[in-house]
Write a structure and sequence with these properties.
Blueprint: H1 19-30, H2 34-46, H3 50-74, H4 81-89, H5 92-124, H6 129-146, H7 148-178, H8 192-205, H9 212-215, H10 225-254, H11 257-261, H12 266-273, H13 281-310, H14 329-345, H15 348-373, H16 389-410
Length: 411
């Protein structure tokens, strides 16, 4: 008697992320610790016109965000950027290079946040920095391995705390201003000098809107990804913009822009000036934001490695999914090891500068890829589509920002 054996298919990622969870994930990687520091720097450049800088930043980032939305609708794959680049440039090595650069960017970004978090933690409690760094990354890696729904839920809780911090500062400022407080600093009339400051602030604020590029790499774990991912990107951008505009408007009227610019913790300064009830709350929330940023980068980086392995562009072992957790454990361990190595070996400033340049260069390439794809009738049809001028403009803007960064570094 013969028995026919049916080979079981290997476990795959679990589609368990709904639109609300994906928006929380997007907010967690967008409304990060950066806004807690960038607000002061932007106020120093744009003065009382800081809200205009944030509005313009949204426009600058919006072109690339919309490009990512359409690409996710055409190719809802975990390999994300690598798939987009291969489809756009029709060269496998371009996809492999792009995927590697995104992993590198995720690792440098996580390393930057990890160093900043350990530094802040050291101000609160006595710790041995390298030990704390290892414990922190291993703990967050364990959460990322737990399961996509579980890890994104934890990230969502931390995101609520981050957004709550921004809202607390905004409400405290509004309450303070409503009582007649705040510096008597009227906004200057629009002039060429003012608009130069607004534009400089907008370029810096661009980085406070990044995060949509991470959302596409969990597409294989999203329900109805072709529609859900683009909608989540737009919702995340809209919510973020509303939060930043309200925050900037209250911040520059509660504390003079020059004073904000001189502070290392501008939102804490606004909160304290406005008489917030728990003085240390904003600093603690900023720390939680750093931890959330690391967790989301580990999730994104591991899914990208998994996607690259599934596409044959990385070692196949990185594409293995644990049958119970349905997460790529080896890929998560690999990205965690790279992050730990960067954080131990490279200074904070080098990591931050490298992250900025890599991200902008990739954005320029991604916009160019979509522009080329849209010229091909045989390309997969998306459920969400934008005009061809969107990626064209996005590529020009990102290319200009790359050039600006390079010139700044050469000075």
């Amino acid at each position: 008697m013969s028995i026919d054996h049916v080979a079981e298919s290997p476990p795959a990622l679990r589609r368990s992320l709904s639109l609300p969870l994906l928006v929380l994930y997007g907010l967690g990687t967008t409304v990060g610790a950066g806004i807690y520091a960038l607000t002061g720097k932007i106020a120093g450049l744009a003065g009382m016109w800081a809200p205009a800088s944030f509005a313009l930043s949204c426009v600058l980032a919006g072109f690339t965000a919309l490009s990512f939305g359409e690409l996710a609708s055409r190719y809802p794959r975990s390999a994300g950027v690598a798939v987009y680049l291969e489809a756009g440039f029709e060269r496998r090595f371009v996809a492999q290079l792009g995927g590697g650069l995104v992993c590198l960017s995720a690792a440098t970004s996580s390393g930057t946040l990890a160093l900043a978090a350990v530094g802040y933690l050291g101000d609160l409690v006595p710790i041995q920095p390298n030990v704390a760094l290892a414990v922190l990354l291993l703990t967050l890696s364990g959460i990322a391995c737990w399961g996509i729904r579980e890890s994104v839920t934890i990230a969502g809780i931390l995101t609520v705390a981050e957004v709550g911090g921004v809202l607390a500062v905004t409400v405290a400022g509004a309450w303070f201003l409503g009582g007649g407080g705040g510096p008597a600093t009227p906004a200057p009339a629009a002039s060429p000098v003012v608009w130069v400051g607004v534009l400089s602030g907008a370029v810096l604020g661009f980085y406070a809107f990044l995060g949509f590029e991470d959302m596409v790499h969990v597409a294989e774990e999203v329900k109805q990804a072709r529609r859900t991912v683009p909608r989540a990107i737009v919702l995340t951008l809209a919510i973020t913009t509303a939060l930043y505009l309200a925050l900037a408007a209250d911040a520059v009227r509660t504390v003079a822009p020059a004073t904000l610019a001189a502070s290392d913790a501008p939102l804490t300064l606004v909160y304290d000036t406005a008489g917030g009830p728990v003085p240390q709350a904003i600093g603690i929330i900023a720390l939680l934001g750093m931890l959330n940023g690391i967790l989301i980068q580990l999730i994104m980086g591991s899914r990208l490695l998994y996607g690259l392995a599934s596409e044959g562009a990385a070692p196949r072992c990185l594409g293995r999914v644990h049958p119970r957790t349905r997460t790529p454990l080896l890929a998560t361990a690999a990205i965690t090891a790279v992050v730990l190595g960067f954080a131990l070996l490279l200074p904070l400033e080098s990591l931050a500068r490298g992250t900025s340049w890599l991200t902008l260069a990739l954005f320029a390439a991604i916009n160019t890829a979509l522009y080329r794809i849209k010229g091909r009738p045989e390309a997969p049809h998306p459920q969400v589509e934008v005009g061809r001028w969107i990626p064209f403009t996005g590529a020009l803007l990102c290319g200009a920002l790359v050039l600006r960064d390079l010139i700044a570094q050469l000075r």
